[in-house]
């Protein structure tokens, strides 16, 4: 994520979103949805020195670790919440590794879900500079809960995990995400972190991180 020259060559586009978005490094508001224990938040603190990081983690045990990790850092604000299409309670499936927990009718832990529009209205947040969504297949529901923000271009950049293989039922297909955001005047800015089908060792692409940019933001960077 550092803006470096390596061997006399500039870092090529697609290796680091924050290198590619270096003109946006004055970001003030970052949302980390699916924060886990704060791995991404640590990167944002270094890459975006002026930003306040809003971290959302619904699993109680994981949230305690997140809260403890940043207990002395006023730039990180942890919230014991999931974000989704509407404000409600839901079940979270917590089998397996903590970074793969997801909302499911078969879940064992009850979590509170809030829409992004409702959260921002309640906390009087008018703009989000960078929104990262890592929710194991729940990305589209998070976007559906941000309709007001998306329609007005109040979110400048959006990073999401997207499924690239039709046999991968864990992640939201790229086509659905791209269609949803393009209809709201967002355009694909970059593709990052390409991961092959590691569960089966097959060579084709399993998932990747997509970064979208609001067309309204073009003149501001």
Brief summary:
This protein is of the alpha/beta class and 221 residues long. It contains 7 helices and 13 strands.
What does this structure look like?
With 221 residues, the protein is an alpha/beta fold. It has one domain: Vaccinia Virus protein VP39 (Rossmann fold, 3-Layer(aba) Sandwich), CATH 3.40.50. Helix content is 23%, strand content 34%. The chain contains 7 helices and 13 strands. It has helices spanning 17-20, 39-47, 60-69, 116-122, 139-144, 147-151, 174-182, and strands at 5-6, 9-10, 29-33, 52-56, 76-79, 82-84, 88-93, 102-103, 109-115, 128-133, 155-163, 186-197, 202-214. The strands form 3 sheets. Strands 5-4-3-10-11-13-12 form a 7-stranded mixed sheet. Strands 6-9-7-8 form a 4-stranded mixed sheet. Strands 1-2 form a two-stranded antiparallel ribbon. The protein is globular and about 45 Å long. The chain starts with a strand and ends in a 7-residue tail after the last strand.
Main beta sheet strand tally, sense and closure: 7 strands, mixed
Strands in their spatial order, largest beta sheet? 5-4-3-10-11-13-12
Supply the helix-strand structural class. Answer: alpha/beta
By CATH reckoning, the class would read Alpha Beta
Task: Kindly report the name of the CATH homologous superfamily.
Answer: Vaccinia Virus protein VP39
Query: How many beta-strand segments?
Result: 13
What is the average of the pLDDT values?
Answer: 87
In percent terms, what proportion of residues is strand? 25-35%
Helix content: 10-25%
Query: Taking Cα atoms only, what radius of gyration do you get, to the nearest Å?
Result: 17 Å
CATH topology-level name: Rossmann fold
Q: Note the overall shape.
A: globular
The end-to-end distance, rounded to whole angstroms, is 19 Å
CATH architecture: 3-Layer(aba) Sandwich
Helices and strands, in N-to-C order?
A: EEHEHEHEEEEEHEHHEHEE
- Total domain modules: 1
Spans of 5+ residues with little confidence (pLDDT < 50)?
Answer: 1-6
Number of helical segments? Answer: 7
């Amino acid at each position: 994520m550092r803006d470096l020259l390596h061997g006399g060559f500039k870092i090529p586009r697609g290796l680091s979103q924050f290198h590619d978005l270096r003109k946006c490094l004055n970001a003030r508001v970052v949302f980390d949805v699916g924060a886990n224990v704060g791995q991404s938040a640590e990167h944002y603190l270094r890459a975006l020195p002026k930003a306040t990081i809003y971290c959302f983690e619904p699993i109680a045990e994981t949230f305690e670790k997140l809260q403890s990790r940043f207990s002395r850092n006023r730039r990180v604000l942890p919230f014991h919440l999931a974000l989704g299409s509407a404000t409600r309670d839901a079940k979270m499936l917590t089998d397996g590794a903590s970074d793969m927990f997801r909302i499911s009718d078969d879940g064992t832990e009850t979590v509170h879900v809030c829409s992004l529009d409702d959260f921002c209205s309640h906390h009087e947040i008018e703009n989000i500079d960078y929104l990262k969504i890592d929710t194991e297949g729940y990305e589209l529901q998070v976007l559906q809960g941000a309709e007001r923000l998306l329609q007005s271009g109040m979110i400048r950049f959006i990073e999401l995990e997207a499924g690239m293989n039709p046999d991968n039922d864990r992640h939201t297909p790229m086509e659905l995400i791209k269609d949803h955001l393009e209809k709201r005047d967002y355009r694909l800015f970059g593709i990052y972190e390409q991961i092959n089908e590691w569960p089966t060792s097959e060579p084709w692409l399993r998932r990747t991180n997509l970064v979208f940019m609001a067309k309204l933001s073009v003149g501001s960077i």
